[in-house]
């Protein structure tokens, strides 16, 4: 798998860890999927606020 940067790689690693932990605790696949989607939204929100705070603009 190819990552754009180290942050993206770390996020993938953490999500994989979380997925395995949830599986061990016998969460349903749909619950894991919904939690994963929620996590993606939180990450996007954080990235957006980080970029705005640091005035990083992509054109």
From TrEMBL:
GO molecular function: protein dimerization activity
Matching Gene3D superfamilies: Helix-loop-helix DNA-binding domain
GO biological process: regulation of sporulation
One Pfam family cited in the UniProt record for this chain: SpoOE-like
Superkingdom: Bacteria
Protein name as annotated: Spo0E like sporulation regulatory protein
Organism: Thermovenabulum gondwanense
């Amino acid at each position: 798998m190819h990552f754009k940067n180290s942050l993206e790689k770390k996020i993938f690693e953490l999500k994989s860890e979380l997925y395995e932990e949830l599986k061990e605790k016998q969460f349903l696949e749909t619950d894991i999927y919904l939690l994963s989607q929620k996590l993606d939204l939180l990450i996007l929100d954080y990235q957006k606020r980080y970029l705005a705070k640091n005035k990083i603009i992509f054109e």
